[in-house]
Write a structure and sequence with these properties.
0% strand, mainly alpha, elongated, Rna Polymerase Sigma Factor, Chain: A, Arc Repressor Mutant, subunit A
Length: 210
């Protein structure tokens, strides 16, 4: 069976519940790239494969209780995301830069902030990335290390959304489904994360310090 030629949802679920091993292998292969991207965005590439494998174990155990409230792939993706988040929390010893109020559904600063367009993307490229000389390239490497360090210090939901959006390139609707947050909260969380990283970049440009 071709990896893109999967049965209809109801048949797919029933055959997986009935331990159709060949179909299971096909599904794992077909969905692995997107599931890996989710895991890697949250915990990094080093253990993303392991996270996905452990998530599939959880999927197999929970599948008979699947209620069909979402598409099967969406449900599996949430399990991967939850496994990745649990792993990240266990290994993370960083202190958050700020607290997050996930019930805050609007942010007037985001609406009026000239640095962002209506979709939440930067209006202008950061000058730190328009570089060419060896010294500038070295500084860019130091800046990337600085940014990476501060990314780990972001509140969890901010980090997850920024990584899924900017690193994994996922759409906001898909991210909201994975993390089970409203679109308004997701936009606020993404804006806060990008704003914090922009402050880090601006400080590095001014002072050369992280």
């Amino acid at each position: 069976m071709d990896t893109t030629d999967l049965p209809e949802e109801n048949e797919l679920i029933q055959r997986l519940i009935n331990h159709d091993q060949q179909l299971f292998v096909t599904v794992v292969k077909a969905w692995h790239p997107s599931l890996y991207s989710v895991a890697a965005a949250i915990v990094g590439h080093s253990i993303a494969d392991e996270v996905v494998q452990e998530a599939w174990v959880s999927v197999i155990k929970a599948l008979p209780k699947f209620e069909g409230r979402s598409a099967l792939k969406t449900w599996v993706t949430r399990i991967v995301a939850n496994e990745a988040k649990n792993r990240y929390r266990k290994k993370s010893r960083s202190v958050s830069l700020e607290s997050v109020d996930e019930n805050w559904s609007t942010d007037s600063r985001m609406v009026s902030d000239p640095r962002f367009d209506s979709s939440g993307h930067w209006n202008q490229r950061n000058p730190a990335w328009d570089i060419g000389s060896p010294d500038e390239l070295l500084a860019a490497g130091e800046l990337q290390d600085c940014v990476d360090k501060h990314l780990t210090r972001l509140p969890d939901q901010q980090k997850y959304i920024m990584e899924l959006r900017d690193s994994a390139g996922m759409g906001m609707e898909e991210i909201c489904n994975i993390l089970e947050v409203s679109s308004s909260n997701a936009r606020v969380l993404l804006h806060r994360a990008r704003d914090k990283i922009q402050q880090v970049v601006a400080k590095f440009q001014r002072t050369g310090e992280c």
